Amino acid sequence: MAVRREEERTTVDRYPGRVRVNHWVTAISLILLALSGAALFHPSLFFLSSFFGGGSNTRMLHPWIGVVLLLSFAILFVQMVRYNFWTRVDTEWMRHIGDAMAGREENLPEIGKYNGAQKLVFWLMTLMILVMFGTGLMIWYEYFGTSFTIEQQRFAHIVHALAAIAMLLVVIVHIYAGFYVRGTINAMTEGKVTGGWAFRHHRLWLRREARKGVIDERQVPPRRHGVGPAE
Fold first, then answer.
1. Residue 199 host element (H or E)
2. pTM to 2 decimal places
3. Is there a contact between 178 and 2 (Cβ–Cβ < 8 Å)?
4. Strand arrangement of the beta sheet that strand 10-13 belongs to
5. Pair 188, 179: CB distance under 8 Å
6. Distance of alpha carbon 111 from its chain centroid, rounded?
7. Is the distance from CB of 3 to CB of 210 less than 8 angstroms?
8. 46: CB partners within 8 A, 6+ apart
9. Among this protein's residues, is 174 annotated catalytic?
């Protein structure tokens, strides 16, 4: 991570490529799970199974996509968990969440890489994915159909559906926040944010990054194409 002074603006590295790849694999997996899960959830939504080649394919693919989600999120968890432990500043920030929604940033405490709401989303996603995977195993009849009783599988069906609905709500909040706070999407597409964005929304994190040193790319001479290293 680094703070860079480029030609016309200051940028801050927020996510390296490996984190962005994991994020988008997780996001695509969630979308596919939502579509295939909805197709299996209610007859009126069964038409969604056409995206997966029919009902049989949907039933076969849904749990395997869940495995992909678990693996990709597990890597994402390891990459991000150290920034998501709750602190007193997060409690103070949550008390002023109305100011955050109204854009009154001057009333908010300085925060690190993530604010309290982002940390809640992270931990809720972690919990929901674990619940969905655990209950998903219980109703994965092909491999675990004889490992649980009918009553246990019925209970797992209910918990799995409720967790999926809760997960969908959390994801909607996550996506809304990404578009609501201008400049946030760039963090997951380009891997960097502007210095102004970091100063306004995550000032404590910006200060820490700046302490590591500022790369002034304006002082780097332009690379000359077609010229090899000096011998």
1. helix 195-201
2. 0.85
3. no
4. 192-194, 10-13, 3-5, 214-216
5. no
6. 19
7. yes
8. 39, 40, 55
9. yes
Is 226 a residue whose pLDDT tops 80? no
Q: At what angle do helices 116-138 and 55-80 cross, to 10 degrees?
A: 140
Return the sign of the alpha-carbon dihedral for residues 30, 35, 38, 39.
Answer: negative
pLDDT at 67: 97
H helix or E strand, kind and range, residue 3: strand 3-5
SS3 203: helix
Closest Cα to residue 123, out of 178, 77, 158, 60? 77
Quick check: 130 pLDDT over 70? yes
Based on its alpha-carbon atoms, the radius of gyration of the chain, rounded to whole angstroms, reads 22
d(CA 121, CA 196): 24
Q: What is the pLDDT of residue 230?
A: 35
Instruction: Using the structure block, give the residue that is written with the tokens 């990709």.
Output: 72
User: How many angstroms separate the CA atoms of 119 and 90, rounded?
Assistant: 9
Strands (E), 73-194: 192-194
The model's pLDDT over 60-78, given as tens digits with 9 standing for 90+, comes to: 999 999 999 999 999 999 9
23, 42, 62, 174: the catalytic one is 174
Using CA atoms, how far apart are residues 102 and 20, in angstroms rounded to an integer?
29
Nearest in space to 112 (alpha carbons), one of 138, 130, 89, 144: 89
pLDDT of residue 6: 72
